[in-house]
UniProtKB/TrEMBL annotation:
Residues 238-257 are annotated as: Disordered. It comes from the Eukaryota. This is Uncharacterized protein. It comes from Tuber borchii.
Amino acid sequence: MSSPISAESHPPARISPFVPAGILERAGIKHCIVGNAVVRLYGSDLVIADLDLAISDEQVGLALSVLHDEGFRDVDFGPGHLVFLPVLGKPGGWVACRLQFPSSPDYVVLSLASCWHQEINPDTTFLPCPDYRFPRFLAYLEALICTIDALVSVGDNPSLPRYQYAIMMVLLEKRPELKGMVSPGDQFFIDFFMKQRARSGKLRVLELRKGIMAGTISVDAARAVVPRPDSSRRRIKEKYLRQGTRGGNGEGSTPVA
C-alpha cells in the first residue's frame, strides 16, 4: 500500500486506500488516521493492512452514513482481527466497524476516538497532505500509552496498541529532538512498563504514572518503589556468573593428593 503522500502525488489506477479519510475530511467529520498508516508515515516499513480511522464519538453514525452514501459496504472482521483487537461489542468495550468499497481490495476500520484515547484538534493533528489528517508524533504516543493503560486496567487485550507502541519506541530513538519533550508520566511508563512480566507489576506502573501526572508523587519517589523484575533477573544472572567464575578458578574444590 502506498504512503499517503505518494498516493496524493501519483494517483494509482485503483481507488487509493486513503480515500475514506479524504471523504470524511471534506465532509467535516472530526477524525484522524491511526494505526499502521501512522507509524508508516513516521518512518516504519510496516505494511498497511486496514486503514484505521479514529472518529469523534458523537459523529461515528454520521461518518458511517457518509461512507455508505459513497458506496462503501459493511464487512465482517476476520478471525485474525478478532484475536488482535480488544474485545468488541462488550459494554464499555472497543467499538469498531469495517467497510470496503466493492471494487477495492482495501478496507477501512472506523473506531471511536475515545477507544484510541486520541484527541482530535489542531494541537494534536496535522495534514501532511490535503485531506489526510494524522496525529502528531507525541500526541499519538500519548494516546497509545493511555489506550494500553485503559485496556490493561480492565483486563482486556492490549495487543493492538502495544504493537503500535513498540514501533513508536523504535521511531522515537531516531527523533532525539522529541525525546526531551515526552511528559514525565509518559517517560516513566516508557522506562518501566515493558519491563514488567506480572500483571500486578504493570498495574503498579500505571498507578504510579497516574500519580506523577496528578502531582501526588514525584518521579524520583515513583522510581524508588516501582517493581524492578529486570534488576532481579540481572542480580540472579550475575550471581551465577560469579559462582561459575569461582568454580573455574578452582575455589572451593577439594585438592587431589
